[in-house]
Write a structure and sequence with these properties.
Chains A, B: InterPro entries: HTH_HxlR (IPR002577), WH-like_DNA-bd_sf (IPR036388), WH_DNA-bd_sf (IPR036390). Chains A, B: This is Transcriptional activator HxlR. Chains A, B: Keywords: DNA-binding, Transcription, Transcription regulation. Chains A, B: Pfam families: HxlR (PF01638). 2 copies of one chain form a homodimer. With 112 residues, the first copy, chain A, is α+β, with helices and mostly antiparallel strands. Chain A has a single domain, classed as Winged helix-like DNA-binding domain superfamily/Winged helix DNA-binding domain (Arc Repressor Mutant, subunit A, Orthogonal Bundle). Chain A has 6 helices and 3 strands, in the order ααβααββαα. A 3-stranded antiparallel β-sheet of chain A has the order 1-3-2. Chains A and B meet through α1, α2 and α6 of A and α1, α2 and α6 of B. The structure holds a DNA duplex (20 and 20 nucleotides).
Chain lengths: 112, 112
DNA sequence: CCGTATCCCTTAAGATACTG
DNA sequence: CAGTATCTTAAGGGATACGG
């Protein structure tokens, strides 16, 4: 299953996936939201080290790519809730495998 | 299952995983090698856009993290073969899920 | 064949302060 | 509460040329 360029089709598919998920934060945000709908501050508290700026920026990108949904409630002070879309939900399998691998990696390499 | 910092344990495990896999190339290299042992040039040909410098650098990091193995054969010209370790092999599940998700993502969002 | 060595540029991302 | 704006630094990564 090679393309004309001599590169496996699977490489191309994963390259597209990685482009949508690149950076240190997107997958962590997706994980946080897959554990339940959350508000800005709640996500921020669950992800160690993320700044408001990065969270804000990444949320926008994820929304553009239709992985999450942003819902604004007309209250004062403003209430905004983030949730994952069906397409975003399909990422959960990736996250699960990554979770298992991360635990194994700690034992094998990091030594925690 | 929260840590003292109020952050889910799964977030920490995935954070560790992402640290070992960060960047645009590592997962693609792992994929290429999971399809079979390969030499430097062969990997390079399978991954569109990667430069020798980046490939060389990432291969070292992956070797340090015990995800791949580098074997040198004493020939002229030199022959070097890369293969995945058992720990690297455990990444294949992640790659499979990422592959499926990438295909879906193309249909849903990119429109290929 | 299998890389290294430079040089350079863009982007990610942290810190801090501020707004509707 | 839910973000923006601005500034700055570190790092990722590309182009090119060269070495064992």
């Amino acid at each position: 299953m090679l393309t004309r360029e001599g590169c496996p089709e699977s490489v191309l598919a994963i390259k597209d996936a990685l482009e949508a998920l690149e950076g240190r934060w997107k997958l962590l945000i997706m994980l946080s939201l897959s554990l339940g709908n959350k508000r800005f501050k709640q996500i921020s508290k669950e992800i160690p080290g993320i700044t408001d700026k990065m969270l804000s920026k990444e949320l926008k990108t994820l929304e553009t790519n239709k992985l999450i949904k942003r819902t604004v409630y007309d209250t004062f002070p403003p209430t905004v809730e983030y949730s994952i879309t069906p397409h975003g939900k399909s990422l959960e399998k990736v996250l699960e495998e990554l979770y298992h691998w991360g635990q194994e990696h700690r034992k094998q390499v990091i030594g925690k």
